[in-house]
């Protein structure tokens, strides 16, 4: 940014004068917490630089940002080398098919070794990584030409025929970088401004985009981040992939099953804390858009599929602790604003316990949230100790029946409930006939199945990994009224669970641990004690790499323990694996104190009517009274 004259003076986050880490919490902690944007121009090109968090507790913010990048620069310390978060970023880049550049930083520090780290990158990530030499000469370095020709048939033929010129070479190498066939690395020291200007010059030379060709096409855009300015204006940060946006444009987008239309009232190009208003945003540009009140992170505009996984799963949840005098409704509204900015929080109100519940990645995130709520909304809060988020499913297949017929009401629903693949969530299928149930009522039942997380009967945890099929149902022309099918659907679901083989699931982490050989035995013992599983360790010299998965409940604090007994030399990568069978089911059920028979929202019984009076039939007796059986 300094060399492109975007800023006049260089800053440092630990000196609290960084151009992008401007939030008071970032200055206080000396880390990046929020993704910030800078716009810079270099040799006639315009760049949108997005600086993402590096701490694992804020990885959802980083993951959402990756969806709008054209190129990714991964910064690696020349002292510490590959860390757990580095591995996670590399894996996500592969999932998003992002071309990657590496910058090996802190080469001025004691113990630094750029060549050692380059070897690590090759061994752990890809043998197709090359340290960029000077490219300003008539022809690039011969080693780069040989490296590239080995991976490109066209270059190889020209090279052997001695007909290779610089223009053809650079064009081919650009394609190879875009296609992730090769990855370029450079080294230096950002603190001492060593190698930075040279790296950016080579980055400029070896990258290209084709957005100008897409400006005349139909609009395609992605909302990847939501923030609020100091006046609490909601800002939707949007990357335009094709076409363009104009102020006063009316944007149409889908929210669940609704089609919404809202008008753009203002657009801003942000660079750090400052911004410039603009009337137009072209393909390839990123802007803060005002006027969209309901669009969420992952919302798309134009002919573009809605992005998935924008509400990342987390393994921990906690409750908010606040004084009795605090207005709970307003506090919940404040947390909903924060959830719009970070969907992984998954804010929920537990009407039974009267608690605001928050999903989190870790304890550092809780400290930040506590400060944010105080600073932005004026509430003094705290959080309870985080608990593991459990879920429930079933084994096999059952049918569930629900009937709701108190006086002047009527609805009956038949469902088939069966196990679905692990980590697939809830899948709905409709096999009902319109001869039995109108299309509108069939859709209403679908809505009641999918509108919320339903509770299981073991611990009251959310249900998952189920395929729920609507078999049939019945309404009454005169007596069916609003809410009847919700009652019947919930009762059918719960009645089926009562008959099923219910399973308790817990979150698992997938891990990769790299340690010196003398620590391998300790690591294996720790994994076994944590009820984890692993594949055979891979030995490379005096290093060992071991991969596997373990329950989050037993492995949450392991990174700290590993650093302690390895003297900081052990490297661990943890990522959320998903849910699997709970290793201590009875202990968790006992600790939950959930009473399935005392959950007014989810009765398993049904209500029938005779002689002008409703009566209740328990779940194990209802099938003999169902009207459609």
In short:
Residues 1-21 are annotated as: Disordered. This protein has 629 residues and is α+β, with helices and mostly antiparallel strands.
Task: Jot down its keywords.
629 residues; alpha+beta; Rossmann fold; Elongation Factor Tu (Ef-tu), domain 3; Alpha-Beta Plaits; 5 domains; six-stranded antiparallel sheet; 16 helices; globular
Structural class: alpha+beta
- Write down the Rg: 28 Å
Biggest sheet character: 6 strands, antiparallel
What fraction, in percent, of the residue positions are helical? Answer: 25-40%
Number of domains: 5
Task: Let me know the number of strands.
Answer: 33
CATH superfamily of the largest domain: P-loop containing nucleotide triphosphate hydrolases
**How far apart, in Å, are the first and last alpha carbons?**
72 Å
Count of helical regions: 16
What would the CATH topology of the largest domain be? Rossmann fold
Question: How are the strands of the biggest sheet laid out side by side?
Answer: 13-12-15-8-7-16
User: What is the residue-averaged pLDDT?
Assistant: 89
**Beta-strand content estimate:** 25-35%
Classified by CATH, the class of the largest domain is Alpha Beta
Shape: globular
- Outline the low-pLDDT stretches: none
Corresponding CATH architecture of the largest domain:
3-Layer(aba) Sandwich
Region (Disordered): 1-21
Protein name: Small GTP-binding protein domain-containing protein
Pfam family, one: EFG_C
Domain Tr-type G: 1-211
């Amino acid at each position: 940014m300094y060399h492109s004259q975007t800023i006049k003076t260089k800053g440092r986050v630990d000196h609290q004068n960084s151009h992008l880490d401007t939030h008071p919490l970032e200055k206080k902690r000396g880390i990046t917490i929020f993704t910030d944007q800078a716009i810079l121009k270099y040799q006639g090109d315009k760049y949108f630089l997005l600086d993402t968090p590096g701490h694992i507790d804020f990885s959802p913010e980083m993951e959402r940002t990756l969806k709008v990048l054209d190129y990714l620069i991964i910064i690696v310390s020349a002292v510490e080398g590959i860390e757990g978060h580095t591995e996670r970023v590399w894996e996500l880049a592969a999932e998003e098919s992002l071309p990657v550049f590496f910058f090996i930083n802190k080469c001025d520090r004691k113990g630094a070794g750029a060549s050692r780290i380059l070897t690590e990158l090759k061994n752990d990530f890809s043998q197709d990584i090359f340290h960029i030499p000077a490219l300003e000469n008539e022809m690039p370095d011969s080693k780069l030409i040989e490296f590239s020709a080995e991976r490109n048939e066209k270059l190889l033929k020209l090279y052997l025929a001695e007909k290779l010129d610089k223009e053809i070479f650079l064009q081919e190498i650009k394609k190879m970088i875009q296609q992730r066939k090769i990855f370029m690395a450079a080294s230096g020291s950002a603190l001492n401004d060593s190698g930075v200007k040279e790296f950016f010059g080579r980055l400029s030379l070896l990258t290209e985009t084709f957005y100008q060709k897409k400006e005349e096409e139909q609009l395609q855009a992605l909302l990847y981040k939501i923030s609020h300015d100091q006046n609490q204006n909601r800002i939707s940060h949007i990357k335009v992939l094709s076409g363009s946006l104009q102020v006063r444009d009316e944007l149409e987008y889908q929210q669940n099953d609704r089609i919404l239309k809202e008008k753009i009232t203002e657009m801003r190009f942000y660079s750090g804390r400052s911004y410039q208003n603009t009337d137009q945003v072209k393909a390839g540009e990123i802007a803060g858009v005002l006027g969209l009140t309901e669009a969420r992170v992952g919302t798309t505009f134009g002919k573009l599929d809605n992005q998935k996984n924008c509400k990342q799963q987390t393994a921990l949840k906690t409750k908010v602790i606040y004084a009795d005098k605090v207005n709970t409704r307003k506090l919940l509204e404040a947390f909903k604003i924060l959830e719009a900015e970070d969907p992984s929080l998954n804010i929920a109100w537990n009407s039974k316990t009267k608690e605001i519940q928050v999903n989190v990645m870790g304890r550092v995130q809780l400290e930040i949230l506590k400060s944010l709520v105080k600073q932005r909304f004026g509430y003094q809060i705290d959080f309870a100790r985080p608990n593991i988020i459990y879920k429930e499913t079933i084994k096999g297949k059952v049918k569930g029946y629900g009937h709701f017929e108190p006086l002047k009401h009527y609805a009956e629903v038949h469902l088939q409930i069966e196990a679905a693949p692990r980590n697939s969530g809830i899948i709905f299928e409709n096999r009902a006939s319109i001869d039995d149930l109108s299309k509108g009522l069939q859709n209403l039942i679908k809505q009641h199945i999918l509108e919320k997380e339903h509770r299981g009967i073991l611990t009251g945890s959310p249900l998952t990994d189920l395929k729920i099929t609507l078999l049939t149902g019945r309404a009454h022309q005169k007596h069916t009224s609003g809410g009847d099918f919700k009652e019947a659907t919930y009762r059918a679901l719960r009645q089926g669970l009562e008959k099923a083989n219910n399973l308790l699931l817990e979150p698992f982490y997938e891990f990769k641990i790299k340690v010196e050989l003398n620590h391998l035995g300790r690591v294996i013992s720790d994994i076994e004690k944590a009820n984890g599983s692993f594949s055979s360790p891979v030995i490379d010299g005096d290093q060992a790499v071991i991969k596997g998965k373990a329950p989050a409940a037993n492995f949450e604090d392991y990174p700290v323990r590993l650093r302690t007994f390895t003297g900081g030399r052990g490297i661990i990568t943890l990522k959320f694996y998903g849910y699997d069978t709970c290793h201590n089911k009875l202990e968790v059920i006992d600790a939950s104190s959930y009473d399935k028979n005392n959950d007014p929202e989810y009765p398993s019984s049904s209500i029938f009517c005779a002689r002008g009076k409703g009566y209740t039939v328990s779940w194990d007796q209802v099938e003999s009274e169902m009207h459609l059986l």
